[in-house]
Amino acid sequence: HPDTLMTLANLGVNYKDAGRVGEAIPLLEEAYRAPKWAPVRRVAGPQLHDAYMKAGKREEAAKLTAGMIAEARKALPKGSPE
């Protein structure tokens, strides 16, 4: 359910902000695996990237960034400032 996924993402963000990135990452990963149409992906993606960086997982952060850029390029019109 979308509300459950958003709650999962929010808990992950709270863990990350509290310095508990080891607990945050699995929650944010699960939220980010939601269907591409789910609004939670827009919340979970950047937060997951931040958690990866705080955990020193730069390779995972780079892969996530590449995926988010590819999705944005498909969703946004050509030349969009976003």
Explain this structure:
This protein is mainly alpha-helical and 82 residues long. Helices cover 74% and strands 0% of the residues. The chain has helices spanning 2-17, 21-32, 40-54, 58-75. The longest helix has 18 residues, at 58-75. The chain is globular, with a radius of gyration of 13 Å. The termini are far apart. The relative contact order is 0.14. The mean pLDDT is 92.
Provide a short characterization of the protein structure.
With 82 residues, the protein is mainly alpha-helical. The protein is built from four helices and no strands.
- What is the overall shape? globular
Low-confidence stretches: none
Category by helix and strand content: mainly alpha
Number of helices: 4
The SSE string, one letter per element, is HHHH
Share in β-strands: under 5%
- Integer-rounded radius of gyration: 13 Å
Query: Strand tally, please?
Result: 0
Layout of helices and strands, plus pairs?
Layout: H1 2-17, H2 21-32, H3 40-54, H4 58-75
List keywords for this structure.
74% helix, 0% strand, 82 residues, 4 helices, mainly alpha
